[in-house]
Design a protein that fits this description.
Elements (H helix, E strand, L loop, with lengths): L2 E7 L8 E2 L2 E4 L10 E5 L17 E4 L3 E5 L5 E5 L1 E10 L2 E9 L2 H9 L3 E6 L12 E5 H10 L15 E4 L13 E4 L2 E10 L17 H8 L3 E2 L5 E2 L1 E10 L1 E4 L4 E2 L2
Parallel strand pairs: 11-12
Antiparallel strand pairs: 1-2, 1-12, 3-18, 4-10, 5-6, 6-7, 8-9, 9-10, 11-17, 13-14, 13-19, 14-17, 15-16
Length: 257
């Protein structure tokens, strides 16, 4: 039976991933995951497509206090305090939030050389796919991608920024779970669809520099699929919504029967 091999979250969307031994899956996913995002002076999301080096910023968040470690050795940390309301466009979906007061916006702006703001939204609001609070991919799929692309071993799963990486699957076996329910640890998840991929996956997960053409490689051996909006995309991994909350830990079984 497949098992959970890695759990990764990102309290601030786009920054370096944080690995966890265990998470609590609620109706809106992991409460601390994608809780914050960055916007520019025009209120547009400032993400890895605009600046891949965001992944060089390390982060710590305990639900109250946020610490950011920048590549130049500077640090911004404090307890969370919220200011003005702001709305951000997420692929045509309006996400309400509030600007976070404190040292972070100034630190982001200094680091990027342009005005930026840190925004907090409600738990689960700032995911890329509406009700897609859970995402997963198998290591066998990452190994197959590496083989197809002439890569030395498996492609680093952090490129795909999934909540769960799984062991014990055949390559792309997870695709077969779409429209089914899966018991992962204590939680029950309905798999809604596959995950369409963009150029962020070409970026090195440590440096943010493009160094492997994931999209071209996927296209050589994977057919295009259609998302819930009828758009074709290159898929890699799956996503779903939580039907029954519960804890999930590394090593837990994933029952897809």
């Amino acid at each position: 039976m497949p098992t959970v091999a890695r759990i990764s979250i990102s309290p601030v969307k786009g920054l370096a991933l944080v690995e966890r031994d265990e998470v609590l899956l609620g109706r809106a996913g992991v409460e601390q995951n994608r809780r914050f995002h960055v916007v520019d002076a025009d209120g547009r999301r400032y993400n890895q497509l605009r600046n891949g080096t965001l992944v060089q910023i390390r982060q710590e968040y305990d639900g109250n206090r946020l610490t950011l470690h920048f590549p130049d050795g500077t640090k911004a940390e404090d307890e969370i305090a919220l200011g003005e309301e702001i709305a951000t466009d997420f692929y045509g979906r309006r996400v309400e939030g509030r600007v976070v007061e404190g040292p972070w916006s100034e630190a982001f702006s200094h680091w990027a050389g342009r005005p930026l703001k840190l925004v907090q939204s409600a738990p689960g609001a700032a995911v890329d796919r509406g009700r897609g609070h859970v995402s997963m991919v198998s290591r066998a799929s990452l190994e197959e991608l590496g083989r197809q692309g002439g890569h030395n071993g498996a492609v680093d799963g952090r490129r795909f920024r999934m909540l769960f990486e799984l062991d014990g699957c055949a390559p792309h076996e997870e695709d077969e779970w779409v429209k089914r329910t899966v018991r992962i640890g204590e939680a029950l998840v309905r798999i809604r669809g596959d995950v369409g991929r963009c150029a962020i996956t070409t970026q090195n997960p440590d440096s943010g520099a493009p160094d492997f053409d994931t999209l071209r490689t996927i296209k050589t051996y994977r057919p295009e699929t259609t998302n819930e909006k009828g758009k074709k995309h290159l898929a890699f991994g799956i996503y779903g919504e939580v039907l029954e909350p519960g804890r999930v830990a590394a090593g837990d079984e994933v029952d897809n029967t």
